[in-house]
Each structure stands twice: as structure tokens, then as C-alpha cells.
Specification:
Elements (H helix, E strand, L loop, with lengths): L3 H28 L1 H32 L3
Helix pairs in contact: 1-2
Length: 67
């Protein structure tokens, strides 16, 4: 079974990845021009997908590892 430490590490990594994608998406949005047209919307869609995965994982961890 997965230990509590591994669950914490996975949770932190998931949240950091979502944060990084959010920052990249906002950065390309403010940069404007061709870069914004090409990548901003795709990064925000990726962020929504990763947020969904992170929320499902965190809820699953909370459910299976409640004490």
C-alpha cells in the first residue's frame, strides 16, 4: 500500500504542476501577440484538466487514508 509520505509528495507535486501551468498560462496571456494566440488557451485548458486530476487524486487520498 502507499504510505502517507508518498501521498503527501504526490499531492504536493500535483499542486505544484497546476500552479506552474497557471503561471505559464497567465504569462503567455499577458505577453500577447502570436505567442498568446498559440499557447494561452491551450495552457489554460491543460490547467483545467490537471486541476481535475489533482482534485480527484486529493479526494481519493482523503477517502482512502482517513484516520
Amino acid at each position: 500500500m502507499i504510505s502517507g509520505t508518498i501521498v503527501k509528495i504526490i499531492s504536493i507535486i500535483l499542486l505544484m504542476v497546476v500552479g506552474i501551468i497557471l503561471i505559464l498560462g497567465i504569462g503567455t496571456l499577458f505577453k500577447g501577440g502570436e505567442v498568446s494566440k498559440r499557447y494561452s488557451n491551450k495552457l489554460m485548458q491543460l490547467r483545467v484538466l490537471l486541476q481535475f486530476i489533482a482534485i480527484i487524486a486529493l479526494v481519493g487520498f482523503a477517502y482512502f487514508f482517513k484516520n
